[in-house]
Amino acid sequence: MTNKIWVYIDQFEGQALPSSWEGIGVGLSLAETLGGGVTALVFGQGVEGVARQAFHYGAGEVLLAP
Question: For the chain, which terminal residue's Cβ has fewer other Cβ atoms within 10 angstroms, N or C?
Answer without folding.
Answer: N
